[in-house]
Amino acid sequence: MEIMSKFTNDAKKMLELVGGRENIVSFTHCATRMRFVLADDKKADVKGIEALSCVKGSFTQGGQFQVIIGNQVSMFYDEFSEISNMDGVNKQEVKKAAKGNMNLLQRAVANLAEIFAPIIPAIIVGGLILGFRNIIGDIKLLEDGTKSITEVYQFWKGTYDFLWLIGEAIFTFLPVAVTWSVCKKMNVDQVLGIVLGITLVSPQLMSASDYVSAVEAGKAVQYWDFGAFHINMVGYQSQVIPAILVGLVFSVIYRFLKKHVPDVISMIVVPFCSLVPSVLLAHTIIGPFGRMIGDGLANIIMAGFSSSAAWLFSGIYGFLYPLLVITGLHHSMLPIDLQTAATMGGIYTFPVVALSNIAQATAVMAFVFVNRKDAQIKEVGIPSFISGYLGVTEPAMFGVNLKYLYPFIGAMIASGIMGIVSRSFGVIANSVGVGGIPAFLSMRGDKIPAYILCILADIVLAFIITVILSRTKLKDYGNK
Q: Where does the record place the PTS EIIC type-1 domain (predicted)?
């Protein structure tokens, strides 16, 4: 009780400051934050809450009022539950309740985020693997810059080949994970979702790139012959948007049948009559349509980053990206990024995103430097910028930068400038990876040295700009 009692007073005050028990619809916690769904957000005294000694910041996102506590949030949660005489719920129930506070766009973004949340760790691992393979296999580091490590040492050649076993599983077969996650989100049979995904990437199917090459070369393409018509045996390897659409259609059919088919025959009829039509639609209508949408979005993004004004496009993207994070719209970029990687062979946006995250972390470091005599700011700021450099920017962005404003603006300016610099160097990523300093591992091998220079310049620039802004009138607009 001695450890928990340190939160007693703050928990009592927070209950009062969020508007009391009657204003709490539900609450839970995650790794560092208390998450509230409030009946009326306006009843929460944000300034009072952020003045509590245990609170490191707060923000509202996805219909939830989130209060940053830190690593001891579970202890605070237990104390709050006891004092409020209320039971918390799991995160899924809180998300469901929070949707009542969202508009249509916010709900769509939230649903998209929930589909991709379970997949992100695998995508990050895949990005790191591709980056490591680039370093040992693509960069000429040995024998006066004429040979790569894999060309000299058999052990590393074996490592390079072996790691593709994991990389292929993550990226080539990504639609399997997507259809599974859609089915999980829609609360339908997840194993059938996996089967559905496999039908999109089966070894029987030719990849889209091989199909284009075969058509251009005038070679025959295999197809299923139904007499009156035929369907080309072309897969959707690495394709995200077709997998999402197919998963959604399957889920709608499954739920409709589950509701209307009698229980006595449900076990047989529902799986068969939902899976078979979905696979047929996937290879005739939904898949080609989804690929067209995905390729179109990828082409638009790539057109911007490949145009004569690519430097400006990249700079604007870097400057505005933090605003996408605040609104939650950054979640909608992940499927487009993955589609771009599959269609175009690389991602121009992720290098800019990582530089934005690093700038946010550096702005906190500069803020701590400016206020180095304030012990409380050190306590909040140091863990925030360390975690930010490792790719977790929420404590930095929401706990410090937005609260005091000028560090947030300093980070935006720095990431906008570095977006221009990054594109000028032609930096491109193989895949999405860790959005902090380790992001250099996700870049194409020949661009890693240039990107490391970008990271160093980003840190210096964000630090200097934030310190300069601390001496302007902007410092008076923050929430002290």
A: 110-480
Burial label for 155, CB within 10 Å (0-12, 13-18, 19+), is: exposed
Cα–Cα distance between 431 and 451 in angstroms, integer?
15
Say if residues 364 and 384 touch (Cβ distance below 8 Å): yes
Question: Is there a contact between 442 and 431 (Cβ–Cβ < 8 Å)?
Answer: yes
Residue position matching structure tokens 């076993």: 165
Per the CB < 8 A criterion, the answer to whether 250 and 275 are in contact is yes
Prediction pTM value: 0.67
Helix ranges (H only) for 328-374 are 333-344, 349-370
Instruction: Place domain 2-102 in its CATH homologous superfamily.
Output: Glucose permease domain IIB (3.30.1360.60)
Six-digit token string for 424: 């000028």
Q: How confident is the model at residue 456, as a pLDDT?
A: 96
Handedness of CA 41, 377, 389, 124 (dihedral sign): negative
How far from the centroid of its chain's Cα atoms is residue 217's Cα? 39
Report how far residue 146's alpha carbon sits from residue 139's, in angstroms, rounded to the nearest whole number: 9
Look up tokens 């920017």; give the residue: 393
Strand partners, 66: 35, 59
Helix (H) or strand (E) holding 413: helix 406-424
Catalytic center residues: 30
Catalogue the E-assigned strands of 208-292.
223-225, 230-232
